[in-house]
Specification:
Layout: E1 8-10, H1 11-18, H2 21-27, E2 49-54, E3 63-69, E4 72-78, H3 91-94, H4 96-100, E5 110-112, E6 121-123, H5 126-144, E7 149-153, H6 159-169, E8 174-176, H7 183-193, E9 198-199, E10 206-210, H8 222-233, E11 236-240, H9 246-250, E12 253-255, H10 262-275, H11 281-287, E13 288-289, H12 291-298, H13 303-310, H14 314-327, E14 331-333, H15 345-358, E15 368-369, H16 409-418, E16 426-430, H17 434-437, H18 441-450, E17 453-458, H19 463-466, E18 470-473, E19 482-489, E20 493-499, H20 512-522, H21 533-540, H22 547-554, E21 557-558, E22 579-580, H23 584-588, E23 608-611, H24 627-632, E24 637-640, H25 642-648, E25 655-659, E26 664-671, E27 679-681, E28 723-729
Parallel strand pairs: 7-8, 7-16, 10-11, 10-14, 11-12, 13-22, 16-17, 17-18, 23-27, 24-26
Antiparallel strand pairs: 1-2, 2-3, 3-4, 5-6, 5-18, 9-15, 19-20, 20-21, 23-28, 25-26, 25-28
The protein binds ligand MGD (2 copies), iron/sulfur cluster and molybdenum atom (MO).
Organism: Desulfovibrio subterraneus
Protein name: Formate dehydrogenase
Keywords: 4Fe-4S, Iron, Iron-sulfur, Metal-binding, Molybdenum, Oxidoreductase, Signal
Length: 733
C-alpha cells in the first residue's frame, strides 16, 4: 500500500465521522447506505478497515467505501456522502470485488510467442517489456515519424497521461472511446449552445427520452433522479425507443418509434411549438439566433408528415409538443449520451437541442445546465516540436467537424488499412477494447495485423489484448493511486474525487503512469514525467486548500458553485454569441444550418435493422466475464418479435444465424413483443475470441463482428444503427 494513505480510516472512526456510530452499534454491523451485512446482533461485528474510493466499473465514478479484512477487500458499499450517485452502487459496482480477484486477471507481462491471435504467450520480466516498448517505439518513430504510432485510451483518470505521452512523443494520432460514443451529441450541443449540457432531471416536470435508456444505461445522478422526479414530484416520462426497455416499462408512455426517424418526430414538435406560438417569445428574442429562419424551415415538417415517417400518430406528436411546452421551462428532451447511431446523428441531435432551446430550459431549474467549475488546476507542459512530422492526424479532414484531440476511431482504422495519408505501424492501447466495441471487427483484426508493434495495458486478456504483441498487466481501481478528477452531477454537485489504493497491487501489475514514465525516460522524454502522481495531485489542488481535508473526511470534495443562471449577462460560445437555432458556421461550410430530414434507408425485405444498447449488468465489453455478473446473464441472445419469428419458423430459444454485409454469428433467439417487428437487438461484449476470457470465450455472438462501420458525416462518430441483418434458423446438425 502506498504512503500518505490519508483516506484510510478505521471502521470506528468512519462511523464517527459519518455520525452513524449509534446506528451501527444497534445493528452490530454497518448500516451505511441502508445495507446491513451483519443484521443480527448476535453475530460479531467484522473487523475491517474502511477506505474511501471511487468505483471504476464504468465511467460514473460513484463514491464507495471498501471494506478490507486482513488485506483483502470483502465488500464494497456506497459512500453515503457522495451525492452525485445519491449514495448508490449498482450491480456492477458491487461486483467490483469479483473483478479484483478474478483468476482471469492478467498477472505478468506477456510477449506474443506464436502467430498473432494464436493465444500463445511467453512471460517476460518488466524490465525487458519496458525496454522493448521503448525500443519499438523509437524504431517506428525513426522509420515512420512520431505520427506512425497510434495511442488509444479509454475512460480513465490516468488516460490524460497517455495523451500527454503521445504529445511529447510527437504523435497527433490519439483516439478514445468517445468517437464510438457521444461526439455527435457533443458536436450538436456545442454547435447550438456553445457547450455540452447536464440535464437537471430531478427538477424537471416532463422528460422526453429519445434513444436513451436511463434505467439500464446508468448515468449518475440522472438515473436515480429520474425515478425520484417521477415518483416524488410527478414528472412525466415519455420514451421513444424501438425496444421496450426498462425505462420504457417504467415510463408514462412508450412509443416504439421507427429507427432512424427521431429527427422527423422532433422537427414536427418544433413545428407545433412555433406554429402554435407555445414558446416564450421574449426569452427566445433575447437568447437565441435564427428563430425566423427556423420557423420557415420547419413549416414543411407537419405532424401528419412526421407520423408517416416515424410511425407515431400525429395527434400524439401534437399532444406531446403541447404538454412539453406547457411544462416549460421545467421540461426537456433528454440530451442523452451515446449517439453513435446514424450517419446524420449530429443533425438528429441538433434537432433535439433546438427543441430544447424552444422550451427555454437553458441554465434553468429542470432544464439543461451549464458546466460548473470544480476548481482543479491543470498541470501545463510545453511539448517539443518535431520537424519531420506530417501536418496532421491520419484522419484529418475526412469529416468537416472532427474533434482534433481524438478524431474518429473508425476513420483512423480505415487510414491504417489503406496506409494513407501515411503509415501507422505502432499501437499503444490503454483501457479500451475496440475489438469488442468498435463496429466491423474484421477490420479491427486487419488493423491489428498491419501493426509492427502493439502494446495493450489492461487487467484482462481482452480480444484486443489477444491481438497484441505485448500485453502489460494493470492494477484495477482498488489497487491504484489516481490523480484527482472533477465531476459534475447535474444540479446535485460539482465535486472532486481521488483514488488511493485500497489493497496492494496484485501480481506484477503496474499502473500506466509508471509504464509511461519509465518508457519516457528511456526515450529521453523524462522531463515531461518528472513527478509522481502524489505531486501531480498536489498541483491539481493548488487552488483548493480545503479539498484534501474534505476528501479525507467525506471521500469527496464539493465546490459550492452557482448552479443556475451562469449565463446571465454572458455570451454563448457560438459565432452569434447566442443559442444557435440557425448555425451560420455550418452554412459557411456548406452544411445544413438547420437539420434537414433524410429518411433512413429502408429495411430490405426479409431483413432486420440491428440496434445496440446496454443492460444494467454490463459495461460495454468489460464486465460480461465478471464471475458475479456472468451469473445474472451467462450469454447474449437475439431479441426477435414473435411475428417475425413465426415467418422465419424460429421458436424461442432456438439457435439462429445472424448475418450482415460484414460478418456473421450464431446465438439463441429470445422471442419478445418488446421489440418492433423490423428490428433485432443483441447485447455487446459476448462471443469473445480470446480464450483468456474463460466465461465468455465463444459464448453467444459478437455484435461488433456484425455491425457495419459507417460514420456520422459531420463528427466522424461511429454509426452503430445502420446495419441490416438476415436471421436464419440453424438446423441442428
Ligand atoms: N456494439 C456496441 N458497441 C459499442 C457500444 C454499444 O452499446 N454497442 N457503446 C459504445 C460506447 S457508448 C462506448 S463509451 C464504447 C466503450 O468502448 P471501450 O472503452 O472499448 O469499452 P470498455 O468495455 O469499457 O473497455 C474498457 C477496457 O478497460 C479494461 N479495464 C477495466 N478496468 C481496468 C483498469 O483498471 N485498468 C486497465 N488498464 N484496464 C481496465 C477492460 O478490461 C476493457 O478492456 O463502446 C462503444 N461501442
Ligand atoms: N449498465 C450500463 N450503464 C452504462 C453503460 C454501460 O455500458 N452499462 N455505459 C455508459 C456509457 S459510456 C454511455 S455512452 C451511456 C449510454 O446511455 P444510453 O445512450 O442511454 O444507452 P443505450 O443503451 O445505448 O441506449 C440507446 C437506446 O436507443 C434505442 N434505439 C435504437 N435505435 C433507435 C432510434 O432510431 N431511435 C430511438 N429513439 N431509439 C433507438 C436502443 O434500443 C437503446 O435502448 O450509458 C452509460 N451507462
Ligand atoms: S454506475 Fe455502477 S458501475 Fe458505474 S461507477 Fe456507479 S456503481 Fe460503478
Ligand atoms: Mo459511452
Amino acid at each position: 500500500m502506498s504512503e500518505g494513505r490519508e483516506l484510510k480510516i478505521s471502521r470506528r472512526s468512519f462511523f464517527k465521522a459519518t455520525g452513524l456510530a449509534a446506528a451501527a452499534s444497534l445493528s452490530g454491523g454497518t448500516v451505511l447506505g441502508g445495507l446491513a451485512p451483519q443484521a443480527c446482533a448476535a453475530v460479531a461485528a467484522p473487523e475491517w478497515e474502511s477506505h474511501f474510493s471511487a468505483c471504476d466499473m464504468c465511467f460514473n465514478k460513484c463514491g464507495l467505501v471498501a471494506r478490507v479484512q486482513q488485506g483483502r477487500v470483502v465488500k464494497l458499499d456506497p459512500n453515503p456522502k457522495f451525492s452525485k450517485s445519491r449514495g448508490m452502487l449498482c450491480a456492477r459496482g458491487n461486483a467490483g470485488v469479483a473483478q479484483l480477484y478474478d483468476p482471469d486477471r492478467l498477472k505478468y507481462p506477456l510477449l506474443r510467442a506464436g502467430k498473432r491471435g494464436e493465444g500463445k504467450w511467453k512471460r517476460i520480466p518488466w524490465d525487458e517489456a519496458l525496454a522493448m516498448t521503448a525500443e519499438k517505439m523509437q524504431e517506428i518513430r525513426t522509420k515512420y515519424t512520431p505520427c506512425g504510432y497510434l495511442f488509444s485510451a479509454g475512460a480513465d483518470m490516468q488516460s490524460a497521461f497517455v495523451s500527454r505521452f503521445a504529445e511529447v512523443f510527437g504523435s497527433f494520432n490519439v483516439t478514445s472511446h468517445e468517437s464510438l460514443c457521444l461526439i455527435s451529441n457533443n458536436r450538436a450541443y456545442l454547435d447550438t449552445f456553445g457547450e455540452v449540457p447536464f440535464a437537471d432531471v430531478i427538477n424537471s416536470k416532463y422528460v422526453l427520452m429519445v434513444g436513451a435508456n436511463r434505467f439500464e444505461a446508468l448515468v449518475t445522478p440522472d438515473s436515480m433522479d429520474l425515478m425520484t422526479a417521477m415518483r416524488e414530484k410527478g414528472c412525466k416520462l415519455v420514451v421513444l425507443d424501438p425496444r421496450y426497455t426498462k425505462t420504457a416499462a417504467l415510463a408514462d408512455e412508450w412509443h416504439p418509434i421507427r429507427p432512424g426517424t427521431d429527427m422527423a418526430f422532433m422537427l414536427a414538435v418544433i413545428n407545433v411549438i412555433i406554429s402554435e406560438k407555445l414558446y416564450d417569445a421574449e426569452w427566445m428574442a433575447e437568447k437565441t439566433f435564427g428563430l425566423d429562419q427556423l420557423a420557415g424551415h420547419v413549416s414543411q415538417y407537419t405532424p401528419a408528415w412526421a407520423a408517416a415517417e416515424c410511425g407515431i400518430p400525429a395527434d400524439d406528436i401534437v399532444r406531446i409538443a403541447r404538454e412539453m411546452a406547457a411544462a416549460a421551462p421545467q421540461s426537456m428532451i433528454y440530451p442523452g449520451r451515446r449517439t453513435s447511431d446514424y450517419e446524420d446523428s449530429t443533425q438528429i441531435r441538433r434537432s433535439f437541442a433546438i427543441a430544447n432551446a424552444l422550451l427555454a430550459n437553458w441554465d434553468r431549474p429542470g432544464g439543461l445546465l451549464a458546466a460548473r467549475a470544480v476548481g482543479l488546476k491543470g498541470v501545463p507542459y510545453d511539448p517539443p516540436w518535431y520537424d519531420d512530422n506530417p501536418p496532421d492526424r491520419v484522419d484529418a479532414g475526412l469529416v468537416p467537424m472532427m474533434f482534433e484531440h481524438e478524431g474518429s476511431f473508425v476513420l483512423t482504422r480505415d487510414a491504417v488499412l489503406k496506409g494513407e495519408p501515411y503509415p501507422l505501424k505502432g499501437w499503444f492501447v490503454y483501457k479500451t477494447n475496440p475489438m469488442a466495441t468498435a463496429p466491423n471487427r474484421a477490420k479491427t483484426i486487419a488493423m491489428a495485423e498491419q501493426m509492427d508493434f502493439t502494446v495493450v495495458v489492461d487487467i484482462a486478456m481482452t480480444d484486443t489484448a489477444h491481438m497484441a504483441d505485448l500485453v502489460l498487466p494493470a492494477p484495477s481501481y482498488l489497487e491504484r493511486l489516481d490523480p484527482a478528477s472533477g465531476l459534475q452531477g447535474s444540479s446535485a454537485c460539482a465535486c472532486v474525487v481521488v483514488r488511493d489504493p485500497v489493497v496492494n497491487a496484485l501480481y506484477e501489475s503496474r499502473p500506466v503512469f509508471d509504464i509511461l514514465k519509465d518508457v519516457a525516460g528511456r526515450l529521453d522524454l523524462g522531463e515531461y514525467f518528472d513527478f509522481t502522481i502524489e505531486e501531480y495531485r498536489t498541483r491539481q489542488f493548488a487552488e483548493l486548500p480545503d479539498a484534501m481535508e474534505a476528501l479525507r473526511r467525506d471521500g469527496v470534495y464539493y465546490n459550492p458553485s452557482k448552479v443556475y443562471g451562469l449565463y446571465e449577462g454572458k455570451a454563448h460560445k457560438t459565432l452569434s454569441q447566442k443559442i444557435e437555432l440557425f448555425n451560420q458556421r455550418y452554412a459557411d461550410m456548406g452544411l445544413d444550418p438547420m437539420p434537414v430530414y433524410t429518411a433512413p434507408a429502408k429495411v430490405p425485405n426479409n431483413q432486420f435493422r440491428l440496434v445496440v444498447g446496454r443492460n444494467a449488468y454490463f459495461t460495454h465489453g468489460s464486465t460480461q466475464n465478471n464471475a458475479l455478473l456472468h451469473e445474472l446473464m451467462p450469454e447474449n441472445t437475439l431479441w426477435l418479435h414473435p411475428d417475425a419469428a413465426q415467418t422465419l419458423g424460429i421458436a424461442d430459444g432456438e439457435l439462429v444465424e445472424v448475418a450482415s454485409s460484414v460478418g456473421r454469428g450464431e446465438l439463441k433467439a429470445s422471442l419478445t413483443k418488446g421489440i418492433r417487428t423490423d428490428t433485432v437487438y443483441m447485447l455487446t461484449g459476448f462471443g469473445a475470441i480470446s480464450p483468456g476470457l474463460t466465461r465468455i470465450h465463444n459464448v453467444g455472438a459478437s455484435i461488433s463482428a456484425l455491425l457495419d462501420d459507417k460514420v456520422d458525416a459531420i463528427s466522424g462518430n461511429a454509426a452503430l444503427h445502420t446495419t441490416f441483418v438476415t436471421v436464419t434458423r440453424k438446423v441442428a446438425s
